[in-house]
Amino acid sequence: MVASLVLWTILAGPAEDPSLAQPPAPVVEALEYGAAVEHLTATIERANRDPVESIDALTEAIAVFDGFAPQLSADVETLELREFARLSLARAQRIAGRPELAAEVMDTAIRASLGAELPADRLGPSVLALYQQRLAVLEAQGYATLEVSCEAPCRIFIEQREVASVPPLLLGRYDVWVADVAGRGEPLLEQVELGVAGEARQLAFGVTQIGGAALGQPQPADRRLMPRWASVMLLAAGTVAMAAGATVVTTAGKANDNPNLLAGAAALGGGAAAVITGGVVLSFDDHRARHGGGRQATLSWTLRF
Q: What is the DSSP string of 52-67?
């Protein structure tokens, strides 16, 4: 996995002291998701103290979970925490005097909830009012449906929520993750834009044996500098590396441990570079997809065996 390789290179490469490996290599992937959860929790706490200064950190901490659909879908507590982080981000954008961005974030949170009620009242009357206003606007625009056809049993995640029966969806953009139940081949990660009320579109996912290996065969996708999942996982790896590097720097700084201080700074810098690279590539590819004739789709799905 790209994130595992990047993370191991960043954390293990500069460190000659085994104590700097946090954690050891065999649990790198567990660290990725666990560290992402810890980072999101800490970022929300900082946002409670200083909302405006935490806008970028909240945005990045939320985006990391785009690459963890199966894990996040099975983790109800963290899934709710992610949606609360979006509400916090909407509040921060409103406090910063950016009502359009606050509305955009709130719209994303509402769509990602797939019809579930969000705890906007926990962030005060102004956030609750924004939530109710945007929900009314989105509902007035109407709903659409997407039919996902699978040639073999598959798992479908919409906005990192696994679905067995998809209700009509509000118009807007959704992340769709389709994976073979047997775990063969790569999952299909697609952004679909629901643009027309009442219209139904299709997304196909097949598994074809090629040279003895099972490979997912999605519909032709727009050309990208990097697969979306790779960009997201690069962001995740960079975020984890930055957190680990910052911990090493803080500990080594207090102990006047210069070798470990330099190693921690290298990990921190490498993580920052990964975050910047992943973020720039992801933003560029998504912008090109939105303005280059990308798909529009709707929701509800069928399985074809």
A: GGGHHHHHHHHHGGGG
Q: What is the DSSP letter of 256?
A: T
Residue 287's DSSP bridge partners are none
Cβ atoms of 237 and 32 within 8 Å: the answer is yes
DSSP 299: B
Distance CA 107, CA 46 (A): 23
**What's the Cα-to-Cα distance from 43 to each of 37, 59, 294, rounded to whole Å?**
10, 10, 33
- Measured in whole angstroms, the distance separating CA 235 from the mean position of its chain's CA atoms is 9
- Alpha carbon distance 36, 265 (integer Å): 20
The pTM score is 0.62
Furthest C-alpha separation in the chain? 64
pLDDT digits (tens, 9 = 90+) for 23-69: 333 333 445 899 999 999 999 999 999 999 999 999 999 999 998 99
* Dihedral of alpha carbons 7, 9, 15, 17, sign: positive
The strand order across the sheet containing 169-170 reads 169-170, 143-150, 200-210, 213-218
Apex CA 13: angle with CA 9 and CA 19, to 5°? 110
pLDDT digits over 56-105, tens only? 999 999 999 998 999 999 999 999 999 999 999 999 999 999 999 999 99
Number of helical (H) and strand (E) elements in the chain, helices listed first:
9, 8
Please state, in angstroms and rounded to a whole number, the distance separating the CA atoms of residues 259 and 18.
Answer: 13
- Residue 26, preceding bond cis, omega within 30 degrees? no
